[in-house]
Structure formats: C-alpha cells, structure tokens
Amino acid sequence: MKGFKYILTATAILFSVIVHSQKVVPETYINPLDIDYTYMVYNSSRNISYRSGADPAVIEFRGEYYMFVTRSFGYWHSTDLINWEFIKPKQWFFEGSNAPTAFNYKDSLVYFAGDPAGYGSILYTDDPKSGKWTPTASISNNIQDSELFIDDDGKTYLYWGSSNIHPLRVKMLDKDDRFLETGVEKELINLVEEEHGWERFGENNFHPTLKEGYMEGASMTKHDGKYYLQYAAPGTQFNVYADAAYVGETPLGPFKYMKNNPYSFKPGGFTNGAGHGITMKQTNGQYWHFATMALASNSHWERRLAMFPTYFDEEGLMYTNTSYGDYPLFGPDHPTKAGQHTGWMLLSYKGKATVSSSQMQIRKSTSTDDDYDITEMPLEKNSEGEIISKLLTDESPKSFWVAEANDDKQWIKIEMLAPGNIYAFQLNFHDQESGIYTRTDGLRHRFTLEVSEDGKQWKKVVDRSNSFEDAPNAYIPLNQPVKAKYVRYNNVEVPGNNLALSEIRVFGKGFGKKPAKVKKFKVSRQEDRRDASFKWEPVIGAQGYNIRWGIAPDKLYQSWLIYDVNEHFMRNLDRDTKYYFSIEAFSENGISERTEIVEVK
C-alpha cells in the first residue's frame, strides 16, 4: 500500500513538472482587431479598393456580444470579445449601415439604426444570431452618426451630430409608439478648440488653414447614476482622433466637460486614433471601449477597430488604458490584467527584411495639409542579390510593399537585430488594387511562418496553408514561445492580384537588459498653453519612449509612444489645465523605470 501511495505521489510530481515546464501562453489579443474587415462600396466608382472598419457599436445581449460596423453589410458575434464571427442579416440597408447604433433593452430586444441616407426605420430583433430583423413602421430623420439610448425607465433618446459647425443634439422618442418623436429636442455640446487643443483639426492637431475640428460619433454610457455623453474629434483620418465625454445628472443634461479629456486617445505607435467608439460592459462588469483607428493608406476613410479596457476612478472620471495599445494585450477573461500589456515587446523593429520580388515599395504618411506625402523607394539588393525592403519593419501601417505576383513563390525573410523568444506574430496585409468593392465570400489568407536561430535551419511554427480564414490583420500567438533570430513568411494565397503587406510584427522577449531610466526629461509648456515640447537624453539601446501624462500624479491616464527620437512636440493639451508628465524607455528587452513625475502648470 505504501508503495502504491509512493507511485501516485511520484506520478503527481512528474505531471506537475511537465505542466510547469510546458508553459502555455495565456489568451491575448492585439489592436487593430483581427477580424475579416469588409471591402468598402463607396469609392468603388473611382476604382479604389480597400477594407475598412469604423464607428463600432458593440453590445452585450444574453451573455454574448454583437458588433456593428460602418458599411459592413452585416455584423459580428462573439462569446469572448476576441473571436468574432460574421453574421449576414436577412434584411439590411442597401449600402450597409453607416455610423450604426445598437441598444440592448433589458435583455429582451436589440434595437438598431444606421441608414446611410440619414433617415429610415429603427430595426429590432430578439434573435440577432438569426440575422432576422423587423423594421418599425415609422420613419425617423437625423439618425446618421447617432446613438440610441433607452434609460432604465424606458424613456428613449437619440443623440446625433456630425459637423465642424453644429453641436451634438438630442431628441426624445416614444419606444412604445413606433419610436415616434415626442417633440422634445435640445442642443447639447459643441467643440471649444480655443480651450481644448486635442479638438483642433489635422494630423498632430495642426492644419495650416482649417482650425475647426469635426464633432461626431455621439455615444451615451450610464454609470453609477451619471450620464457620460461621449463624442469624437477632430477627424477620423488623423492620428489624434479621440473620444471625450461630458457628464450630466440626466440624459438631457446639463453636461459638464470631463477634466481628463480626451479619455480615449492613442496618437503614437504603429496604429493611431481611438475615436468614434462605444463604451460597453462585459458580463463580468469590466468596461471596454471599442474605437476607430486611422489606417488611411488607400483612402482617408480606410480604418480599423480597437478595443481598450475602460475604468471609472473614485472621482467618477472615465478613462481608458491605451498604453502599448498596439502590442499584445491580455484577453478580456484574464482575472487581473484584462486589456493590459503582456510585456511582450517588439522584436522585429528595424529588422533586415528581404523579399522574393518587388513590384513597388511605397513610403506614405498623412501630411499636415490633409493630403499624403508619398515616396516610391528605389530597388535595392544586398550582397547576396536579395531584394531589400525597409518598409516591412518600420512601424508604419501606411507604407507598404507589393510583390510581383500572388502565389507560393513569394516570400519575406526578416533577420531581427537580436535573437529573442517569440510569443506572437501580427501580419498586416495591404490592399493594392485588389478589385474587390463589397462584402465578398470565400476570401482567405494562406501562408506558413518559419523561424530560425542561424538563418539556415528552419522550423515551421505556423501552418495556414489550407486555411479558410480571412485575416487582413492576422494575429497569431504561439502556444509556447520559440527562440529565434530569423522569421520567414511563405505565401500560398491571399485576396487580390498581388501579395502586399505593410508590416510584419514579431513580439516576444529579448535576452538583453531592459533600457536604463531616462535622464534630463524636460517639459516646456508653450505660450499657446495647448502646446508643449519635450526633450531628454537618448538612452542607449532604446527603440523608443512612452510619454505618460494626466491631471494628477495618480491619474497619468494618457500616453504617446514614439520611436527613435529624443524630443517631441504635442498640441493636444487643455489650455487651462495643470498637467503631470513622466517618461519611460523601451526596447525588445523590456521597459525602463519611469522618471519622476514632472508638474507643469
């Protein structure tokens, strides 16, 4: 008997050792979200073909989630907020919904509006999985860029507005009488650019002629008895596109500007913007903000979606965590760190990339005058005769490489600057004259990924060669990390005439020391108090820096991630607000200690 117990004990110990030695990576996600974005029907008359996802309306209904997106000809369903499956509805708007709004009323009915014409019926269903919707008999006006909100007492409100002149408005509807208007209509809020720097129009909040930003994307969240009226500014194509809020005691106001605005803001890093979104509550009580991010490569209206964890502090201030918001983040079901950075760093930045062929390589950026700066890169080869691409590891989603074909002879090889343990990949495909102009079935991305420590012996770690998944921003976490210095993408088939990518991003943990703490961090607020300049000493080995700031030392809710440089200029501050700043350096090996907080009056 004693021997039997010994065998059981030894077996348990051995099993424990095996389990702990084979570390399984927790569920994660990344921004932009990895979903099968729809090709846009507008701009098709100009033969401009691109995918886009914008203006999300996300709701929880009977323990599951539904996401409605501008002009997608349907919507997505999820049980975990990470894996989304497209639903093609039985009845829908001819050009897809535009700036949609959806509301779950007491877990009994989902109401929806978003007719691109700006008027139409409000639809409803008690079974959104089926795709069957019923229209109300009334026709409502001004439902574009709108938000439908039904309070606990059944009173119904429609908020709307999209203008650089006119304010957001609200009108009351009768939910029990075909959503007819009751006659109660009110002007609510407008932009105040002379006080709020982040509301100024343009890339980095600068434009040489236009000063008025666009106010749009009304949204309403009720929390702890308060009403948070949210709005987006200054323009969807810009890196500074953001969401802010006014807070009131009733759905009709009066509303007061929230002093930590904008509460959803991501101006730096690989993918920018965090505006025109919606704040929703997960079944476990965690809030999330789904937002629109600017891609703006084929068109200014080429966009993607993001999801950030959202909180309310002890003052009732709503804020999101967008720090390292386009790096891998813990999934919504993580017990303590949902939506927070995993600590996996970017291993591929400035890696030496070579490609099988090259039809073109374009470096592109949004300029301050609302157009593009475009540079076609010359063909370069290395000493081995391989074509060089400097755009696939430059952390710019607008720049792209186009192969000469779309077949299994196309490949990309990246030699990272240093080896590391790889935890995940993100493949950002580009649409180059793909000739697709609407929701299309049967699209798929087929490829394999290999890794190597020496560039000679290769190991296949991802095999999607027979996949039916359409993944224009494919995010692929590995079950277990793998050590490598080289990564190779092998194409099989992707949508479009040519294989094209903007970026291959490799995430993990380097083997070196994390960067040292930044020294001599100086902040100078300008004569225009909406502006501030920053300088600091470069940190050896740092890829970049993350500036954090907020309205109090314990409220550094906002951040701006930048690469390479050791100075910065921002135009997004509120004129009459005192701020506190700190900065940290980061590299493939980790994140440095933050500097002492600097108070700037």
UniProtKB/TrEMBL annotation:
SUPFAM superfamilies reported in the protein's UniProt record: Arabinanase/levansucrase/invertase, Fibronectin type III, Galactose-binding domain-like
Q: Which residues form a coiled coil?
A: none
PROSITE patterns assigned: FA58C_3, FN3
Q: Where does the record place the Fibronectin type-III domain?
A: 514-601
Pfam families according to UniProt: F5_F8_type_C (PF00754), Glyco_hydro_43 (PF04616)
Tell me the keywords, alphabetical order: Glycosidase, Hydrolase, Signal
From which residue to which does the signal peptide run?
1-21
UniProt entry tagged with the keyword Repeat: no
Family the entry assigns: Belongs to the glycosyl hydrolase 43 family.
- Output this protein's name: Family 43 glycosylhydrolase
